[in-house]
Amino acid sequence: MVYPKNETWYWYGNVGTTSPPREDQTPTYIEISYTLGKSVISATVGSNTYQVTINVLDYASEYVEAKIDAYIKTNVTTKTTQLEKLKAITAYPASFPYSAKYSGYISMIIFEGGDCWASSSTIQHLCEKVGIKSYIRYAANDGGAGSGHRNVIAYIDNKYYICEAGYGYTRPNRPYNVYEELLGYSTRTQKDGIIIYQYDGYDQEIFVPSSINNKAVIGIEKTVFIHGPAKTATKIILPDTITFIGNSVFNSLPNITNVIIPKNVQTIGLYVFAGSNKIEKIIVDDDNDALCSEDDILYNKNKTTIINYPPGKVKDSYEGLSSLQRFENYSFYYVKNLTKVIIPQRVKYIGEGAFGDSSVKEIYFAGDPPILCDFIFYNLNLSVYYPIASSKKWEKYLDQKFSAKAIRWYTWDPVHQNLVIIPCLMVGFIIILVIVLFILRRKNNANSGTVDFDFNKNFKNLLVVK
Questions:
Q1: Are 109 and 70 in contact (CB under 8 A)?
Q2: CB of 123 within 8 A of CB of 94?
Q3: pLDDT recorded at residue 247
Q4: What is the DSSP code string of 197-254?
Q5: What is the DSSP string of 297-345?
Q6: Would strands 6-12 and 235-237 be described as parallel, antiparallel, or unpaired?
Q7: CB–CB of 376/356 below 8 Å?
Q8: What does the alpha-carbon distance between residue 124 and residue 398 come to, in Å, rounded to a whole number?
Q9: Contact 204/180 with Cβ under 8 angstroms?
Q10: Average per-residue pLDDT in the chain?
């Protein structure tokens, strides 16, 4: 008797494991899954060897593929254009009722129902079978969509089409829709112009257009680039028509090394660069009247507020500009190379989450305590130094953690810390100068045959106290 290779899963509620059953807990249920595919079994009887090929199939998959192939043959291949085929494909999952129980194309077809994930999985699978380039699209940013919504983006004849069959009607033959997404950008329109909230294209060097449908692109927002192929983009260029950059726009892009802020941008959102650990430079157009950059760090124009420190900047310390009065919310969030920060005396405000989840280990305050917002040291293990001259003013903070893993408070003297360098350098210079003059003097005496000091004769006398 030959049995297929299998794997046993032990389920405890919604948690499954292949480890042996727990002694102190009975599994909710046990699932045995067979390893699919072909295997060859050899058996030797006397001098003869026999080989048998066994093909283990999932008959659920076989049944579903047969159903899909029949639908394609009758409803899809009969269409003339790829767009017509795409519409026929999108109609197929909509022929089943909506059901939150099933989220894949196999379960949707077997049980004749499924959610938006199931509809998207079915559309994408049929597209693959007929040669239409597509992928399952993150659709939670769309107006009215739920937080986990999905649909499909398809690419035909240099145009992008969104395929939507996830409408939640519980009857069969539900509504579906196929519509063009211009240039691969999802947008919403305001009176002043277009705002882009998602890019679904395949470009790795992305040049955001200055207009769409003859309307100026004035803003860009949300996690616009991190869904689909664009998440591995190497370059993103924004047009001069942009006036604001919203939350999370450059968040978690692994291959972007610098960002250029156009001249008309007036505001920057929160955690815009967080998680993009290769961004070393944030550069602002010289003609921008609201923002500027110095040493590749983003500030407001008069440099009283630091807005964002590049998360991938290769430097282990940052000493704030003397003009600084404010650290913006999440300004150093997720910065990964920085270990030491010196906060200038004039700073009056440090925003929410300012240093959260960063690599910072030491923070030095040079003045009185500023306003310290929630989560400024989130998830950090660090030492914080405050001036000994204003230690009384800092006492109320010493029992607070500001969401740090661990925080140690120390006093320091920023005034003498800076001044002590000067006399030390002067003493060192004088010692070196004396040594050089002494060597030159001895060389000169050796050449002239004179001796100022005889070490051999006088060394012992130097050690004798009379």
A1: no
A2: no
A3: 95
A4: EEE----SEEE--SEETTEEEEEE-SS-SSSGGGGG-SEEE--TT--EE-TTTTTT-T
A5: EEEETTSSEEEE--TT---SEEE--TT--EEPTTTTTT--S--EEEE-T
A6: unpaired
A7: yes
A8: 57
A9: no
A10: 89
Task: Please answer whether residues 333 and 358 qualify as being in contact, where contact means their C-beta atoms are separated by less than 8 angstroms.
Answer: yes
Residue type, 42: S
Kindly report the pTM of this predicted structure: 0.77
Dist. CA 388–CA 393, nearest whole Å = 10
- The three-state secondary structure class of 112 is coil
Rounded Cα distance between 261 and 245, Å, is 9
- Residue 357's H or E segment, with its range, is none
Note every long-range contact of 3-9, with CB atoms under 8 Å and residues 24 or more positions apart, other chains counting.
4/34, 4/35, 4/39, 4/54, 4/56, 5/34, 5/35, 5/39, 6/32, 6/33, 6/34, 6/35, 7/32, 7/33, 7/35, 8/32, 9/33
Whether the CB-CB separation of 324 and 350 falls below 8 Å is answered with: no
Place of tokens 């983006």: 153
Contact 400, 378 (CB under 8 A): no
pLDDT of 14-54, one tens digit each? 678 888 888 888 888 787 777 778 888 888 888 889 888 88
Return the bridge partners of 194, or none.
189, 217
Sign of torsion over alpha carbons 391, 394, 400, 403:
negative
